[in-house]
Hints:
Elements: E1 2-6, H1 10-19, E2 27-32, H2 36-45, E3 50-54, H3 60-67, E4 72-75, H4 82-91, E5 95-98, H5 112-115, H6 118-124, E6 127-129, H7 138-150, E7 151-163, E8 166-167, H8 178-186, E9 190-193, E10 197-200, E11 208-212, E12 217-223, H9 228-235, E13 240-245, H10 249-260, E14 269-271, E15 274-276, H11 278-285, E16 296-297, E17 299-310, E18 315-325, H12 326-333, H13 337-355, E19 362-364, H14 371-380, E20 386-389
Helix pairs in contact: 1-13, 3-4, 7-9, 7-14, 13-14
Amino acid sequence: xxxxxxxxxxxxxxxxxxxxxxxxxxxxxxxxxxxxxxxxxxxxxxxxxxxxxxxxxxxxxxxxxxxxxxxxxxxxxxxxxxxxxxxxxxxxxxxxxxxxxxxxxxxxxxxxxxxxxxxxxxxxxxxxxxxxxxxxxxxxxxxxxxxxxxxxxxxxxxxxxxxxxxxxxxxxxxxxxxxxxxxxxxxxxxxxxxxxxxxxxxxxxxxxxxxxxxxxxxxxxxxxxxxxxxxxxxxxxxxxxxxxxxxxxxxxxxxxxxxxxxxxxxxxxxxxxxxxxxxxxxxxxxxxxxxxxxxxxxxxxxxxxxxxxxxxxxxxxxxxxxxxxxxxxxxxxxxxxxxxxxxxxxxxxxxxxxxxxxxxxxxxxxxxxxxxxxxxxxxxxxxxxxxxxxx
Length: 391
């Protein structure tokens, strides 16, 4: 298997750190607009199976030219570049993976642009596995596992994410891409209900105190727009799907201020003759999350709370989760917890595809596949998931 990874920021670099320990691939090429980034990554890891290249992720032809030398394209950029990379993979007849779906807009749901191409991918006999990060991704795998093995009837699939991570030395330092975080948190949150379909609420709505396991404890979570709400109902029979994120009062305050000032905008404005998007300025002004690992401490938890009737017909509420401890990820991979937790899952998916354990055609999410081999391989990577019953 020959893999092209487009984007060598925090997650792309973490993909390299995880994949280096595995032997399922022949070659991985890491590509970025800035050629020094993949080159530095390849030199640092010193693995003969890794190579570096330059690519413009916004240019479909540029990506397609490079993808023709690969079997699989893994998109590790932020989602504004999804469609040119997605289309380039189809043109080059490659399998495609990403960790976040095409962006929403007025009358357009997350992933609509990609799902519109399902039949073209299916007719080509090619797979586009979308949303295979941690959330979406592992959270969807948990939902599939619960539906197949734990529940006879599901009322709600409720994805809940929280952490007790802290970054020393900064007044404000997000642990993941601020560009993507703004997109998720300031768009109207999406909820799906069987009787009502999709609907939105106000940003940061319906605060809920959720008790996260393994020492993290209670964290206030709020509604956020996220792909699981779109993906899960396509494959799993349930009554409701929600996503809530533990942001914290300070983070919510900062996001609201950015919105009030127009600094969340993706539309360029003229500044002394230069066209620049305010959101890009915010991202450039903040520290790169990938560089914060040695200043971070604590854990982050990604998980899915499933409620309904268990296999015995009795009411059941089960939280399936994965914990990433920054001390451990820095020690073992040299990568901070949030990006490492995200990067694990596409590498596992790549290995399952290489084995032929997962296969398919069309535009599909992780919930379309058997969860057991994924969770077994996750444990094989030394990253067992947890499961707790809730009263």
